[in-house]
Amino acid sequence: MWMKTLARVVTSSRAAREISRARVEEMVRRLLGVSPERDVLVREFECADPNCQGSETVVLIYGANEPTDVLKIKCSLAEVTEQAVQFAQRTREKTAGGEGKQ
């Protein structure tokens, strides 16, 4: 019985994470005007920065022959707001042939 309950919790947790990830991707595309030709990858990590408390959401925006934008948002996927995305955009990093940090 407890295995079925555990399986439901894990499944619902994965579903909630996927919903949050899709929400953040849509928010990034809409707020930053990301073209459909570019890919957006959203991941949540435990923050390695000692000043950070808890999780960090990292967004990669990439496409062929274009620099990769790296947005680092200092909160979990579920806590990402439009203001957090806009702040991360202002402090983003460009890699893979980009101009460096902007």
- Total of helices: 2
Low-pLDDT ranges: 97-102
**Domain module tally:** 1
The side-by-side strand order for the widest beta sheet comes to 1-2-3-4
Give the strand tally. 4
Terminal Cα span: 53 Å
Quick one: overall form?
Answer: globular
Q: What fraction strand?
A: 15-25%
Evaluate the radius of gyration: 16 Å
Coarse structural class: alpha+beta
| Mean of pLDDT | 81
SSE topology string: HEEEHE
Helix content: 25-40%
Q: What composes the largest sheet?
A: 4 strands, antiparallel
List the keywords.
102 residues; single chain; 2 helices; alpha+beta; globular
Question: Which helices and strands appear, and what pairs or packs with what?
Answer:
Layout: H1 2-32, E1 39-46, E2 55-62, E3 68-73, H2 82-90, E4 93-95
Antiparallel strand pairs: 1-2, 2-3, 3-4
Q: Would you summarize the structure shown here?
A:
The protein contains two helices and four strands. By secondary structure, the protein is α+β, with helices and mostly antiparallel strands.
How would you describe the overall organization of this protein?
It is globular, with a radius of gyration of 16 Å. The protein has a 4-stranded antiparallel beta sheet, covered by helices on one side. The protein has one domain. The longest helix has 31 residues. The protein is of the alpha+beta class and 102 residues long.
